[in-house]
């Protein structure tokens, strides 16, 4: 990816992700924004599903963190941007982590790669021992 | 502030002979529209705009993007949107605004103060004219977008072939966006009609690329997840070659040579024999 | 603190209707409850109705596949009913095809499918 995905700038909300309930809240918040942004039903579903995967990653692999979401605008096209941040152990082998079926936890290993397929823009920044930041954007069609 | 003074002077100039000036403006503009807009409508439109303009100058000064000018911007937006929808050209639309310039023409007797006010008006009218054109083209883009969407809807009819069997006959080149629309519509129709059999007929499709082939495949898998079966019919030899050459796994997806074969297959799957179905059709005649 | 999803019994079929967005623990609880109830009741079939679910992510998807596999070992057939189109499209994109889980368009069809074991009609995903 050459250009960095749009991050929320104007009005935005930050949600702590520290429990299973927070993952549910993260889904609901992203859904509300996706509806506000008038994403199609399928795109809403894709984005909320991606957010669910990433929020769970933040909780399970990152030992908790935050989700920051907001509406973004690029040349008249609207979108929803979500940033998941944790200060966990980081990902040692990113390429491996982005491979379908690879898992470090009890999951199916579809979290990261799936979230990438479900969104229009995807970026990940990780450092062993410091944490991980994943940014995703879904644009209106 | 000098600019403030100019605005005030301009307000005075525009109000003094307000009615005469508006009348001249309306007449000037109506010429360019050659009767395609009723005089009454134009009259109402421009009078409203004129008083909003004077009010804007009075309340908001020269800053046309400011709070005091919101009424003017709203009226101009409405005007350009209407013109765009009614098929007027950008020139015809913008001329309505630019014609304002001709209302106040300086001559040799014009005072220094008035001259400055005229220049101010010129500057404002230029900005408002551009604003009008911009709104106009935005509206046109919206119209084109809506038409493209309608075309997409029209070009992907999902039809019910039998109780429990729906089909989508695809014609023309498939791109990724269109295939996605088809996919969503087909799956929704399965739910709406309670149909367990879907047929995607691509007899009218000259070629597919990897992405489109993938979309078709995904549709079939998604239909299965929902509890329905999907058959693809009418695959041309070139497309079959493409699919194999691209290494796309069609796996256990049911494919049939023609739509008729696919319908026969679907009828059998829902427990209706094609012969019985044919008899029903004859009986109904 | 997580709420438990009720498992209803209709004849020799167990019915689970998921009505709300579930947190992960509830999902695991449901999987456990179902296995226990199958043994307890000797049920022949399980119908999981997800008509109300607006999303199914990989966690819930995995639970559905696992539940189907567990019930099969316990001699009960599982049918997943009512998946919304948007959810199905998303699951496919996510890379989850729920291989081996039987599916039906509606609760009615799902129950009918269990009634005539091995009957034709809907697909096996």
Note down, in words, how this protein is organized.
The complex is a heterotrimer of chains A (141), B (285) and C (125). Chain A is α+β, with helices and mostly antiparallel strands and 141 residues long. Chain A is 35% helix and 30% strand. Chain A contains four helices and five strands. A five-stranded antiparallel β-sheet of chain A has the order 1-2-3-5-4, covered by helices on one side. In chain A, a hairpin with a 3-residue loop joins strand 4 (121-127) and strand 5. In chain A, helix 1 (20-36) packs antiparallel against helix 2 (41-60) and helix 2 (41-60) runs antiparallel to helix 4. Chain A starts with 11 loop residues before the first strand and ends with a strand. The mean pLDDT of chain A is 89. Chain B is of the alpha/beta class. Chain B contains eleven helices and five strands, in the order H-H-H-H-H-H-E-E-H-E-H-E-H-E-H-H. Chain B has a five-stranded mixed β-sheet with strand order 1-2-3-4-5, with helices on both faces. Chain C has a single domain, classed as 2-Layer Sandwich (Transcription Regulator spoIIAA), CATH 3.30.750. Chain C has helices at residues 24-41, 58-73, 85-94, 107-115, and strands at residues 7-10, 13-17, 45-49, 77-81, 102-104. In chain C, helix 1 (24-41) packs parallel to helix 2. Chain B binds chain C through residues 183-184, 187-188, 190-191, 194-196, 218, 221-229, 269-271, and chain C through 80-81, 83-89, 91-93, 97-98, 103-106, 109-110, 120-125.
């Amino acid at each position: 990816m050459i250009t960095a995905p749009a991050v929320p700038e104007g009005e935005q909300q930050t949600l702590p992700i520290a429990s299973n309930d927070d993952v549910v809240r993260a889904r609901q918040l992203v859904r509300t924004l996706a509806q506000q942004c008038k994403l199609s039903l399928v795109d809403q579903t894709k984005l909320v599903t991606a957010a669910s995967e990433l929020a769970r990653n933040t909780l399970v692999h990152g030992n908790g963190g935050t989700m920051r979401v907001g509406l973004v605008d690029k040349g008249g096209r609207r979108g929803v941007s979500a940033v998941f941040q944790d200060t966990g152990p980081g990902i040692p082998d990113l390429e491996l982590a982005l491979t379908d079926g690879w898992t470090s936890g009890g999951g199916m290993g579809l979290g990261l790669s799936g979230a990438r397929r479900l969104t229009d823009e995807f970026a990940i920044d990780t450092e062993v021992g410091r944490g991980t930041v994943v940014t995703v954007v879904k644009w209106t069609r | 502030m000098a600019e403030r003074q100019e605005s005030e002077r301009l307000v005075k100039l525009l109000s003094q002979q307000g009615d005469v000036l508006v009348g001249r403006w309306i007449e000037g503009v109506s010429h360019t529209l050659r009767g395609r807009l009723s005089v009454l409508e134009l009259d109402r439109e421009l009078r409203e705009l004129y008083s909003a303009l004077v009010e804007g100058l009075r309340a908001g000064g020269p800053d046309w993007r400011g709070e005091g000018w919101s009424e003017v911007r709203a009226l101009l937006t409405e005007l350009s949107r209407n013109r765009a929808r009614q098929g007027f050209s950008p020139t015809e639309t913008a001329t309505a605004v630019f014609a304002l310039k001709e209302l106040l023409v300086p001559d040799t007797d014009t005072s220094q103060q008035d001259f400055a006010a005229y220049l101010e008006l010129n500057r404002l009218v230029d900005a408002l004219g551009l604003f009008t054109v911009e709104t106009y083209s935005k509206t046109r883009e919206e119209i084109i977008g809506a038409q493209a969407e309608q075309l997409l809807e029209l070009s992907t009819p999902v039809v019910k072939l039998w109780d429990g069997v729906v089909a989508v006959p695809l014609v023309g080149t498939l791109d990724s966006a269109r295939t996605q629309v088809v996919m969503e519509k087909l799956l929704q129709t399965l739910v709406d009609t309670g149909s367990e059999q879907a047929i995607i007929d691509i007899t009218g499709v000259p070629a597919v690329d990897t992405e489109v082939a993938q979309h078709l495949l995904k549709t079939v898998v998604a239909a299965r997840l929902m509890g329905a079966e999907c058959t693809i019919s009418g695959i041309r030899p070139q497309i079959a070659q493409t699919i194999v050459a691209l290494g796309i796994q069609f796996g256990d997806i049911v494919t049939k040579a023609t739509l008729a074969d696919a319908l026969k297959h679907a009828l059998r799957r829902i427990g209706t024999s094609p012969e019985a179905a044919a008899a029903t059709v004859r009986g109904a005649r | 603190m997580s709420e438990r999803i009720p498992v209803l019994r209709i004849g020799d079929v167990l019915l689970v209707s998921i009505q709300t967005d579930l947190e992960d623990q509830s999902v695991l609880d449901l999987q456990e409850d179902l296995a226990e109830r199958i043994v307890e009741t000797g049920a022949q079939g399980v119908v999981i109705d997800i008509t109300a679910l607006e999303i199914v992510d990989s966690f819930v998807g995995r639970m559905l596949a696992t539940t189907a596999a567990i019930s099969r070992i316990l001699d009960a057939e599982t049918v997943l009913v009512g998946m919304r189109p948007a959810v199905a499209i998303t699951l496919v994109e996510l890379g989850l095809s729920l291989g081996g889980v039987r599916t039906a368009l509606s609760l009615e069809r799902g129950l009918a499918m269990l009634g005539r074991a091995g009957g034709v009609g809907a697909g096996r995903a």
